[in-house]
Every structure is written in structure tokens, then in C-alpha cells.
Amino acid sequence: MRAHLQRIATLLRTLDADVVALQEIDERSRWAGNFDQVAYLQDHGGFEHALFGRTTLREGIFNLSYGNAFLSRHPLLEGEAVTFGRKTVGEKGFLFAEAKVGKRTVPLLNLHLNYRSRASRLDQVGQVFRYLEKQHNTRAPHWSVAPLVCGDFNTARHDGDATSSLLHELKYFGDYSLLPAGGNTFPSPLPTRALDFVMVPAGIQVERSEVVRSWLSDHRPVLVELTLPNA
Fold first, then answer.
1. Strand partners, 64
2. Domain count of the chain?
């Protein structure tokens, strides 16, 4: 497990990533060696800052603790994890944080949606938007841009499901771009579906976006290079 995580850390260094969003990463779970994978990647990837948001917790001999995380070369502020339900195995949720990039404050949300049920995904999208709306009402004066949203949507970009629904809801904050423009992410060896996206608000210039050719997870990573507005 540690050797595999070392390969992931090497990839993150090669990509020269400033901020990394991870889904379904173990904090301390028996099935994954009972060690903190976020701390391991932070150390071996050379990231000064990290934030973990638990979505699943189970005590006992078959203990589980996993969720979403950010790794960052910039300070992370105002972190909060939200779960969509109360299952002890397989629960999904999202992690919110504010990244301090120079004098700019960038709100970030990293989500992982249900993979089985369209109805559940749409309900989860509603929870995400209501959370962001509440944050916007209190925190917007401190933000340099509208929230940047990314993660595993477990559905494509087509109408009538979670990806298109959240993209529509985010218009409350202004125009958004859905990235990458093309390329499939799942399953990683021979991907046939695009399930992983980054939603970028107006005011951030997109330099490039791509699906990275990698087999280190069941999903291929999405790389987006952005330029923030001047402070």
C-alpha cells in the first residue's frame, strides 16, 4: 500500500500540482493497513498543507475511517466536512475549504456522489448547492472568486443527472465552465465514461485541462491549469 501511494506521490510531483482533491482516501482503516494515507501523501508529495474530511466511520475490529481530502502548497482555511447520510460503510459527502493564494481567497469544494442512484445524486447536489449558498451569503466578501467545485460525480455531463444539475445551480454565482472538455476517466485501464469534473467559475482563466493517462486508481485524474485574477 505504501509503495502504491509512493507512486501516486511521484505522479503529483511530476504534475507539479498546487492543489489536489482526493476522494475515498483512508485515514485509518483496517482494510488499507491502518495508517493515515493523507499524511503519507502530504509528506511524500511535498505538500505543506492538508485537510481531511471523514465521510465514513466505523469502530471495532474492522474499523473504517475514510473520506475526501485536499493536499495543497497554499494554506487551507475554513475547512468543513459534510456527509450526505449516516451509513457506516460507503457513505459519500464533500469537503469545503478556502485556499489562501497570495492575497486571494479561493473557495474550494471536493465532492463524491452516489454511484447507484440518480435520485440520490440529485438530492446530494441539492445539499451541495444549499451549503454553498449559505457559505456565499456569509463569506462572499472575503472571496476573490466564486466557489470552485470538483470531484467524482459518478455520472456523465448529460442532462437530467447530477453533473448538469449542479452546473445549472451554480449559475446562481455566475457563469461556469465544465472541465475537462473531453476525455473519459473511468475505468482507468480502458476508460469509457467521463465521471470526474472540475467546475470553474468566471474570473478564473483556464490555461489547459486534460485527463491524465494513469492507472494508479480506478479513476484517471483530471488536471486543470488555472490563472487566478489579480488580487
1. 58
2. 1
Residues paired with residue 69 on neighbouring β-strands, in sequence order: 22, 52
How far apart, in whole angstroms, are the C-alpha atoms of residue 102 and residue 158? 37
Q: What tens digit of pLDDT does each residue of 9-19 get?
A: 999 999 999 99
Over residues 115-134, the pLDDT tens digits come to 999 999 999 999 999 999 99
Q: Which of 147, 146, 20 is nearest to 73 (CA)?
A: 20
Write the CATH number for 157: 3.60.10.10
State the pTM of this model.
0.96
The four Cα atoms 174, 120, 110, 5 give a dihedral, to 10 degrees, of -150
Name the residue range of residue 39's domain.
2-227
